[in-house]
């Protein structure tokens, strides 16, 4: 294995060039899905790398239940600096497990509390109108998902702008954007180098919903006006309410950039940018980094398997 076992821990850096360029050159729907896929693959490879290092590190601890042969020199030689890396990876894996568990627990706890609080509130089948003087609107995922909007925000928008607002929030629910964001958050918990992709994904999902709303209303300028006005009058969900905690999962993204994009032409819906463009070059770099990370993780896993198999007594 050699130093290749460490590659999945640092190769997420290759995904960073595509984040900003994907925002600018890809359709938001494709950009969001691409960023999520890259984040999940690279995080999985990092997790495999940590698992391999934990095997080596755990085998050296006294009183461990693993076969004695797993702590032989042949096994330790397969990982450079095994003494430090093995013990550090144990602590890292514990931290990753705790961070992922906390993220999942908070996400589903807030969802459950929010849905209980929405019971009996006025609104349509998928819209919950909250009697509140603070203007805000969120898409609350679940079964079924619902659009949360305050009476103050509805009062500040014209009827046509309300239609654009509802179309935007429904696009979040239809596109399962909460799943993409949650997957990328978990990927960031596994490898902190992937956290910058979350900001790009937040913008991508907001732009995706903007484009869906513009398609529903048939008026990009109207949608841009609704996005801008809602952002100007909106305020954070009041602290102390059940929705304040859930608001951490929602973000409006860079509103001026979103408005400028809506006032421009419809973004091209192509699967892969031309190779001779900045976005195409960044996509190739990210694809190469992802491939090398996956192959190095697979190579390390297979190599360690045969080393442990040879060191395991019959």
How does this model look, in words?
With 314 residues, this protein is mainly α. 66% of the residues lie in helices and 4% in strands. It has helices spanning 7-10, 16-25, 28-59, 73-76, 82-118, 151-156, 159-174, 177-190, 195-217, 220-233, 242-246, 255-263, 278-311; strands at residues 127-130, 137-140, 146-150. The chain has a three-stranded mixed β-sheet with strand order 1-3-2, sandwiched between helices. A hairpin with a 5-residue loop joins strand 2 and strand 3 (146-150). Helix 9 (195-217) packs across helix 10 (220-233). The longest helix has 37 residues, at 82-118. The radius of gyration is 24 Å and the shape is flat. It starts with 6 loop residues before the first helix and ends with a helix. The model has no long low-confidence stretch (mean pLDDT 78).
Tag the structure with descriptive keywords.
314 residues; mainly alpha; 13 helices; 3 strands
How is the main sheet built? 3 strands, mixed
Unreliably modeled segments: none
Give the percentage of residues in beta strands.
Answer: under 5%
Strand arrangement within the widest β-sheet reads: 1-3-2
Mean pLDDT: 78
Helix content: 55-70%
The shape, in one word, is flat
**Derived structural class:** mainly alpha
Beginning-to-end CA distance, first to last residue:
24 Å
Along the chain, the helix and strand elements come as HHHHHEEEHHHHHHHH
Number of helices: 13
* E-strand count: 3
Radius of gyration based on Cα positions: 24 Å
What's this model, at a glance?
This protein has 314 residues and is mainly alpha-helical. It is 66% helix and 4% strand.
């Amino acid at each position: 294995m050699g130093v290749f076992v460490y590659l999945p821990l640092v190769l997420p850096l290759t995904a960073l060039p595509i984040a900003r360029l994907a925002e600018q050159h890809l359709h938001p729907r494709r950009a969001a899905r691409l960023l999520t896929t890259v984040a999940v693959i690279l995080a999985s490879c990092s997790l495999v790398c940590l698992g391999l290092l934990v095997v080596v590190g755990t085998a050296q601890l006294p009183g461990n239940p693993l076969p004695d042969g797993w702590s032989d020199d042949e096994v330790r030689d397969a990982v450079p600096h095994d003494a430090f890396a093995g013990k550090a990876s144990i602590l890292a894996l514990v931290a990753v497990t705790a961070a992922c568990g906390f993220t999942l627990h908070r996400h589903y706890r807030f969802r459950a509390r929010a849905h209980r609080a929405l019971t009996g509130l006025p609104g349509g089948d998928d819209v919950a109108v909250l009697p509140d003087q603070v203007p805000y609107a969120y898409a609350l995922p679940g079964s079924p998902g619902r659009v949360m909007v305050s009476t103050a925000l509805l009062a500040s928008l014209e009827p046509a702008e309300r239609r654009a607002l509802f179309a935007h929030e429904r696009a979040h629910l239809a596109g399962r954007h909460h799943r993409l964001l949650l997957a990328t958050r978990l990927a960031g918990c596994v490898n902190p180098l992937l956290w910058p992709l979350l900001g790009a994904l937040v913008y991508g999902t907001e732009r995706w919903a903007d484009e869906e709303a513009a398609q529903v209303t048939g008026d990009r300028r109207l949608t841009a006006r609704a996005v801008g006005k809602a952002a100007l009058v909106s305020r954070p969900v009041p602290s102390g309410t059940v929705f304040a905690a859930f608001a951490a999962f929602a973000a409006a993204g860079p509103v001026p950039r979103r408005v400028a994009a809506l006032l421009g032409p419809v973004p091209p819906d192509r699967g892969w940018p031309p190779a001779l463009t900045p976005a195409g070059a960044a996509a190739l770099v990210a694809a190469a980094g992802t491939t090398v990370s996956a192959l190095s993780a697979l190579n390390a896993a297979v190599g360690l398997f045969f080393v442990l198999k040879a060191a395991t007594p019959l």
